[in-house]
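re: that chain from earlier
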Amino acid sequence: MKRKLRGIVLALAMSAVVAVGVACGDEGITNGDNDNNTNQEQPLPLTQLTKPSVTVDKNGLATWETVVGAVRYAYKINGGEEVETTLREVLLKDGDEIRVKAIGDGKKYEDSSYCSSVEYVYEAPLYDGEINKGPVVLTLNALDTVDSATVLSG
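^ sequence. v structure.
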């Protein structure tokens, strides 16, 4: 009878071990080399950067404000090749269109989308009835002579 009781207890104990193993699946068994990273936190989604706001001055200098989180910027002129830069300005020619985006670090911030195109159109100064009052530039070669009376009187 003692043997029978011992056999029943042993059978019950083994059944319990098997039931625990089945209920735990692979999660309860580790060998130190477990590559299953199910217990690690998933990375947070990246925050998309704000589009840069581009302005172009009367000389064709396109500039944009700093975008918080940007590590650099990319621009396209006239839909051409993308150029990356850490600067926040580029000189345009008459008729050029520029689009700019902010580039993120890929860890916390993702790239912005491109801003709307901004076009530079050269506007010649209006003639006010007087000759340009800017500095006078003379180009002379070795045979030319100029006296001060000619330059001052025009």
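The chain has two helices and nine strands.
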